[in-house]
Each structure stands twice: as structure tokens, then as C-alpha cells.
Amino acid sequence: MQKEFSIYLDALRIFAASLVVLLHTDLRYLTPGHPLNTIGHEAVVIFFVLSGFVISYITSTRERTPIDYWSSRIARFYPLVIPAILLTPVLDMVGQQYGPQFYADGKTTEGAALLRMGISLFFMNQSWNQSVMLFSNIPFWSLCYEMWYYVLFAIAFFCSGRRRVLLLLAACLLIGPKILLLFPVWMLGVWIHRDKRLERLGEPVYWLLFIGSVLAFIWFCDARMTQVGKGISKEMLGPKYFELIAHSRYFVTDYLLGLIVAANFIGFRGIGHRFALPLGILEKPIRWAASFTFPLYLLHQPLVQFYGALINGDPTGYLFFFEVLGATVLTVVAIGTLAERTRYRTRNWIRARLEALAAAWQGFRSRGAPASPA
Length: 374
What we know:
This protein is mostly helical. It has 14 helices and no strands. The model has no long low-confidence stretch (mean pLDDT 90).
């Protein structure tokens, strides 16, 4: 991958994660309001296209076997997912004692704690008509989508023939249509990486795609097209099915936004070398900040509400907002640093376990195979 394009993608990670955090601080009455308080779901679309691109890239360069692929995916997710599952109910319980106003009006969920935690451990929160929240951790829904996109991609990439068809069918039947509705958005990233024709469009076209996509994104957000998509899907599906698809209810305009994001990626990849100097200067801080976007995305919601309740300041002033945000970021950096230090050891341990399971399976199959004729 071109270095400048890689740095740009990391910068987009920071941008998208920041949009989600700003949305949730506003929704939780922790700030007097800001101009980006309606943009959040759009950031998830950016993450989906980005994720599809990165997964396609790494499977074509270094993670060429199922064991390499899954050891990296599991080691990436679970060192942060498990703390999120364990910490969220504790933070919510303590936070509600100090600032119950930040947990009112459906801002958290109570009851069936072990069931919620168990379902979250296997990313089944959004399968079919389920919409099970991990307590106050609303952003967890998108991880349930993304993990199953990893599964679908792995089946398509590593399997073949009848096995591929049967496993894809089984996975689709397990997760249901709601998650599948946004799979085309994720697959846009795969298409960008794999379609080599997109690398031969010419620099004027790349500039047009890049500038046009930036303007289109600004228009999309300013026109609140996500809400337009919500209205269209409600009219198409009716109130009952509209409620059942939960976070996929914006799918109509998510497809449009996915194309805008895809155009942006295609365009910048073709002109990235023109930004070599500024991106080179900013590379280290961008890389450092981007390394915390996943823990920030995954953990910010319960931390924001917890610190908001603990500090319990004046939401009409920005001092309270920056105190809560600062405490949240510092906690995320601490947890993210610890998770990063253990990730590679965790990956090697998982790889060893998967290799042992693969060897055992091969041994089982060889024992069950009919003996060859003498």
C-alpha cells in the first residue's frame, strides 16, 4: 500500500472516531452543543468501507491462511472486547449512583446482565430481530456487524466449491438480513482494493473523485441525508419491519454514502504522492493517535457517561465537557496501550492453539479415511 495512502486512512480513522465521540457526548447532555452533533452514523459507514479495504489488503499480502487471519482478528478484538464487556456494567452501576440523570431516558439498559454479556461475547447482539445493547455501550452494535463481515469474507476467501456455498448460507441464516443489509457497504472497500482498473484512471480523474467526494460528503451531512434515508426505509418497509432492522434503518442512503467514501479512497490513492511532504511531517502523530481509535470507539460511551456522572458538572459550559472528554481519552490511552502490548503475544498464543486444532482435525480425518488398496 502506498505510504501516503496508508497515513491518510489512519487520519480518516481519527476523524471518524472523533465524530462518533462528539455525537455521543452531545446525546448524553455533556455539552451545550456543537456543529458536529448530528454526524455519527456517517462515521460508521466510513469505518465499514475502510475495514473492507484493509481486510482485503492484508489477506492479499500477509494473512494468507485461515490460521494467520483468525489469530490476528481474534487478537485484535478480544483484548479490548472482553474489558468492554466486563467494565461497562460496572461503570454504569457506579455512574448511576452519582449522576442518574446521565442514564435516564433509555441511555442505558438494565436486567439480564449475564445474557447480555454472553451474547456480546459472541457478537450475536444484532442477529435477526435482536437488538441487545451491551448496557450503555451503544457503539458495540457495529462490532457485531463487522465481526460477521470478517466471517463472511473469510469463508468466501479461504473456502471453495460446495463448502463455500454451504458455509456462506449457514452464516447468513445465523445472522439474518439486518446485518446483511450493510454488507454491500463493507464490500465496497474490498472492491476498491481488488479492482486493478481503479489504479489506471489518470490523475485528473483522481483529483475529480477526491474533491468531488469531499464536497459530496459535506452536502450529505448538511442535507442530513441519513435522516432522509431513515424516512425512505420506514415508508418502504412499514413501521414494524423498520423497527426490526434497528441500526440498518438508514441503509438506503448508507449505500450512497458508501459510494462517496469509496470515491474518496479511489481518488486519494491516485494523488496521495502529491501530499507526501505534509503527510510525512504528520506521520508519527497520526500513526500514534490512530492506534487508539479502536479502543476509543469501543470504550468511550460507558466512560463518557461514567465520568460525566462522577464529575457531575455544568453541561451548559464547555469546562465540564473537556473534563469528561479528557478523562475519557486518558483512560482509553491507558487501556489501549496495555492491550497493544499484549496483542502480539495473544496472537501468537492463539495461532499455536489454532495450529494444534488444525493438526488434530487432520489426524481425525486421516484416521477416518478408507485405507488405500494394496
